[in-house]
């Protein structure tokens, strides 16, 4: 962990997970597949951060996150410590402590409290949600900025057909994968797109600290956690992934693979494969009352899905939410098609008969 070079070795990855998330994988059972997506994000954030002097090595970065996690550590106290460190070093620098704190928050919580600048270019989308954190502890930030949202009292049904694949192919809602937890299930572009936070491995890091990595899939979703993120938030976010990406749905699996290939082609951050391994919700688990943190966003997304009308032939074919309407449309379409075909045949036959009659004239 003594440099910021990439790619990271397995040993370095294990040390980073242990320091940041208190996850202690053993060398003989560490499966990098479960952490690759997070470390792709880690690399992008670190390489584009302007905090260079306070985070010269991976050890410095991990220790900075550890400093932020202390129960008595506030944003002001951490920034004061970093400011003293910068002043004690020789040479001028335009680096500010806020950059280092924003870096640590991104790696620990995968939310934004400020943008990063490298050579004048921002690595974040201009519309990315940035949480306001002026002072207080990191838990104060979570408790005030990431809270349950139950303002909408509409009763909606989250049927089995309500998943990410059908949002796209039936309702024409674009799925945009985000690395910002605060943007999970947020609608964009006048309800034409929805953002989905897919880093299930990151959620497991917070949920299963001190649990060996291969045991993730057999740990109950509501297990005790030493995470800064509320256990209910972690549990509920995983359940929204199970809702939108049902594990045992073959069609969703194929669609997810195409989404992964599309991102690779565009050289964007890869999808977390563990997002497809969050289980599949039963009927009683798909009730809107079971969601608090993402309640309102799910209600809005479901309303947009229900109100969407097919706009092309493919959507008309896939949209079977209203069976009677679907059958009526396609019966009418078939009758119209047959009418046009037979009408065209009769026109051609009539033309041939006229032409043959003309040829038969003496």
Q: How much strand content do the residues show?
A: under 5%
Tell me, briefly, the overall form: elongated
* Largest sheet: spatial strand order: 3-5-4
> Overall mean pLDDT score?
82
Structural class: mainly alpha
Count the helices. How many? 13
Number of strands: 5
* Main beta sheet strand tally, sense and closure: 3 strands, mixed
Number of domains: 3
Q: What does this 3D model show about the protein?
A:
There is one protein chain. With 362 residues, the protein is mainly alpha-helical. The protein is built from 13 helices and five strands. The protein has a three-stranded mixed sheet with strand order 3-5-4. A two-stranded antiparallel ribbon has the order 1-2. The radius of gyration is 27 Å and the shape is elongated.
């Amino acid at each position: 962990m003594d440099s910021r070079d990439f790619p990271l070795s397995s040993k370095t990855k294990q040390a980073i997970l242990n320091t940041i998330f208190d996850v202690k994988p053993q060398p003989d059972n560490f499966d990098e597949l479960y952490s690759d997506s997070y470390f792709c994000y880690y690399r992008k954030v670190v390489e584009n951060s302007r905090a260079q002097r306070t985070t010269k090595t991976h050890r410095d970065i991990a220790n900075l996150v550890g400093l932020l996690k202390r129960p008595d550590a506030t944003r002001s106290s951490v920034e004061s410590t970093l400011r003293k460190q910068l002043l004690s070093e020789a040479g001028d620098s335009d680096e500010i402590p806020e950059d280092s704190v924003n870096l640590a928050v991104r790696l620990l919580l995968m939310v934004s409290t400020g943008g990063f600048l490298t050579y004048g270019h921002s690595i974040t989308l201009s519309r990315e949600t940035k949480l306001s954190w002026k002072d207080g502890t990191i838990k104060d930030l979570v408790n005030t900025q990431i809270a349950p949202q139950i303002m909408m009292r509409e009763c909606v049904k989250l049927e089995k057909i309500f998943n990410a694949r059908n949002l796209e192919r039936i309702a024409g809602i674009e799925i945009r994968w985000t690395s910002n937890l605060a943007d999970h299930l947020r609608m964009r572009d006048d309800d034409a797109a929805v953002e989905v936070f897919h880093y299930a491995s990151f959620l497991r890091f917070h949920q299963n600290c001190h649990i060996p990595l291969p045991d993730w899939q057999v740990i109950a979703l509501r297990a005790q956690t030493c995470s800064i993120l509320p256990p209910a938030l972690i549990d509920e976010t995983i359940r929204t992934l199970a809702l939108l990406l049902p594990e045992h749905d073959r069609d969703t699996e194929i669609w997810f693979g195409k989404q992964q290939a599309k991102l690779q082609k565009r050289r964007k951050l890869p999808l977390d494969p563990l997002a497809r391994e969050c289980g599949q919700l039963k009927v009683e688990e798909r009730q809107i009352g079971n969601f608090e943190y993402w309640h309102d966003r799910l209600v809005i997304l479901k309303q947009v899905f229900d109100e969407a009308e097919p706009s092309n032939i493919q959507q008309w074919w896939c949209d079977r939410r209203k069976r009677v309407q679907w059958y009526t449309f396609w019966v009418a379409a078939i009758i119209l098609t047959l009418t046009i075909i037979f009408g065209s045949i009769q026109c051609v036959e009539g033309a041939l008969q006229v032409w043959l009659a003309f040829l038969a004239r003496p």
